[in-house]
Amino acid sequence: MEIFETLYKEFTGFFGYKQLLEIVKTQNYEALLTQKGIQAFLGPLIPLLLIIEVIRGLFYRRYSFPQYKISLFTYILNRFVSSFLSIAMVAFCIGFFEPYALFKTTFTWYWFVYGYVVWELSHFVYHYFGHKVRLFWCLHSTHHAPEYMNLSVTYAHFFLEAPYADIIRTTICILLGVNPPLLFLIMFIDGTWGAFIHVGENLLKDGRLGFMNKIILTPSHHRVHHARNPLYMDTNFCNLLNIWDKVFGTLQDEKRNVEIEYGISRPMKKGDFLDAYFGEIVSLGKDVYHAPGLKSKILYILMPPGWSHTGDHKTATIVKADYIKVHQQELSVETRH
């Protein structure tokens, strides 16, 4: 009986309908107007869309288990680990850094706008380091390993990435005055949108969302972010607002003549969960082990993926620059159209 109880808790936890069910049972529908009520209503949205996405894939015969395999196994492993390892980094950072905040904000609409802009900055910083520092890429690469895009990818993360991300994002937001209640609301909204932008073509063929592609970061932008095409590497680091990608020159629209290839540039064992989860860590360990001298060993950890002590660098910046140089003419034609 205990195993069935555990499975039931995992099921309700994944679909997130427990709070909504409680509101329906008590008929306290006024609760839907509160922050917790909104969270209860939106919580089951992404899991529900994931199921619809799978069903549509089956109906149109575009579904195959390997498309979801790595994400599924990653979610299961992370759930198993998290039951033994609970890291409350958000609470820790709030308690530690709040006394040092530059100023205090309140729960108003204009501070909400300010807080969201600050949150996107903090997300950009965490995400940028996740691609530009080899050690952090080891934590983030699991999310990029799947060679397909669908809603299950939102659950594919190395278990230590969330604590690392929360330390950076929460610290920046708290120091810049975003108060905790406001921060939690922003995190929930951004988390919901951040999950939705992983929607696959089985559910949403064109991810540009019409005119919204010019205003915010859409699923199309995030498909570009997950691509291993040289032109698309290390772009679109923000989640919803594209302001910081514009500021730092990392905004990249999807090109109609450049088909997206998902996954990472390192050769992988196709569909291998262990390689997707631990492969980059193993690769870094080998590079550090074979590197001559302490300086080179440290640089392998801190420099971007693709850096080499031999000088034969294959970082995303270099690979992208070489690609643009060769394909400059056809890219300029696409831009004009």
UniProtKB/TrEMBL annotation:
Instruction: Name the top EC class.
Output: oxidoreductase
Please tell me where this protein is predominantly located. membrane
Sorted UniProt keywords: Lipid metabolism, Membrane, Oxidoreductase, Transmembrane, Transmembrane helix
* Any GO MF annotation of the entry: oxidoreductase activity
**EC number(s) on file:** 1.-.-.-
Q: What is the recorded membrane topology of this protein?
A: Multi-pass membrane protein
Question: Cellular location of this protein?
Answer: Endomembrane system
Q: Where is the Fatty acid hydroxylase domain?
A: 112-250
Q: Where are the transmembrane segments?
A: 38-60, 72-97, 109-129
Lineage, top-rank taxon, reads Bacteria
Question: What is the protein's given name?
Answer: Sterol desaturase family protein
Q: Which organism is it from?
A: Spirosoma flavum
